[in-house]
Write a structure and sequence with these properties.
This protein is α/β, with parallel strands linked by helices.
């Protein structure tokens, strides 16, 4: 029987930082699904909720949606992962991992076993056991699905997200068995005195003390959502995750149908937009935008 998770506060900086470090970023597509556009880009009107759930919209008009994870190679730390994407079992029986309610929200899931993050790492000569740190933007089922594949890693998640995921179930997007393992979980307290501002973001942490990997607090999609700013040789990259599903959320302030807290979501969106204004050369990667995903290069 697995031991229940007992998270501890993160003691920063985490080991491995190097002055002036730059990282290499590899986007990993762990699977895909489809969803109605009004779920990702809200519509108004009395029956907007019906269209958000796909009622009255032909399946061929639904959007293709990527399910990503991100490999980050740090010169001192080694391999780091941002989110885990789909577990390999999703390729065979999605509901066994994603929960039975996923049949209503995750449609036409497509995945090959070799798309799992662990398999893609091995193809690059990286054993999953060598992944030092996994940064969890949040613990929703399509992001935390494959946590069990990395038992030797330190998982970093916001304290607010851990509290939300531990006390809520699948109606809020969580399947507890995905993350309730006796692994090394470290919590970031973005509400505490040690958080610092960074560019447009009011609360952030420099994880390794060298400026190469920063977590920034972007709650709203979930109560403890965080995004990640990376310093690569080609400039900064913001892995926004579900703080913005779509690029249009950033450019047009077009919100998704559902947020856990709309006030927090709008505040986080303002901070991302401020960051984009202050750092116009930065690449901003939305969470589930197929067009934006296909524009990404293999490595940064």
């Amino acid at each position: 029987m697995a031991t229940a998770a007992e998270p501890r506060p993160a003691e920063l900086p985490l080991p491995g930082g190097r002055e002036g470090a730059r990282v290499r970023l590899h986007p990993l597509l762990t699977g895909q699904m489809i969803g109605p556009e009004p779920w990702f880009l809200r519509e108004e009107g009395r029956f907007a909720w019906r269209r958000a759930f796909g009622l009255g919209i032909k399946k061929e008009e639904w959007l293709q949606v990527p399910v990503p994870a991100f490999l980050v190679e740090h010169p001192g730390v080694g391999a780091i992962l941002i989110d885990t994407g789909f577990h390999p079992s999703v390729a065979v029986k999605p509901q066994a991992n994603l929960g039975r309610l996923s049949q209503f929200t995750f449609k036409d899931v497509q995945m090959k076993p070799e798309q799992a993050a662990a398999a893609q790492l091995r193809k690059r000569g990286i054993e999953p056991s060598s992944v030092k740190v996994v940064l969890m933007t949040h613990l929703h089922i399509d992001h935390a699905s494959a946590i069990s594949e990395f038992p030797d890693s330190t998982f970093v998640v916001s304290a607010a997200e851990w509290a939300a995921a531990s006390s809520n179930g699948q109606f809020h997007g969580y399947v507890k068995r995905q993350f309730d393992h006796g692994f090394d979980y470290r919590l970031l307290d973005f509400e505490g005195p040690d958080a610092e501002s960074f560019s447009g973001f009011a609360r952030s942490f420099d994880l390794f003390g060298d400026g190469s990997v920063r977590t920034v607090y972007t709650p709203g999609h979930t109560l403890g959502h965080m995004s990640v700013v990376l310093r690569t040789a080609r400039g900064e990259v913001l892995v926004a995750a579900d703080a913005i599903y779509m690029r249009r959320t950033l450019t047009d302030t077009h919100l998704p149908y559902r947020t856990e807290d709309e006030h927090l979501f709008r505040r986080s969106l303002r901070e991302i937009r401020q960051y984009a204004g202050e750092t116009p050369e930065a690449l901003i990667v939305p969470g589930h935008d197929w067009e934006a995903w296909n524009e990404l290069e293999a490595v940064y």
